Please model this.
Amino acid sequence: MSQIFVQPSAHVDDGAVVGDGTKVWHFCHVMAGAIVGRDCSLGQNVFVADGVSIGDRVKVQNNVSIYEGVMLEDDVFCGPSMVFTNVRNPRSAFPTPSGRYQTTLVRRGATIGANATIVCGVTIGEWAFVAAGAVIVKDVPSHAVMAGVPARMIGWACRCGATMRDGDGDIVADACGRTYRREGEGLVLEGEEGR
Model:
């Protein structure tokens, strides 16, 4: 028997998949065809569209709509009232057919702050940190801290959430002692090849 909690005012459509340990709070709607992983929390007034994929241990705070085309990997945090889009040039008179929405991928461990906007068609790298109110219009490197409108990179974030200064050679998180090295445009934790 599935061990999920669905608050009585929430609605999970037949055909939606919700993993064990997940909590679906007040006034949520999870559509048929949505997949929500284990041990997630969907805060008040969250909408999850058909075709959305949400990994394990994801926390979606109040007033977030996750539209078709959005994929959230494990351990993602979506702050209150942050916004996903799935069409770059929407027109009411010319609706985009289902299945033709742009894909937005939020990689493992990334954080998106309150009231941030994610313009569709981007990838937010692993353990990246998008500041409150930022507007993301292009791909975000792993561990990058992004702020502003449009967002620009202002530093690095450790897995533990602490910010790190950019420097020559390895980058060390003072808060926890983890050491990172550059790989492509992002960072990789020392000892983790290709992640």
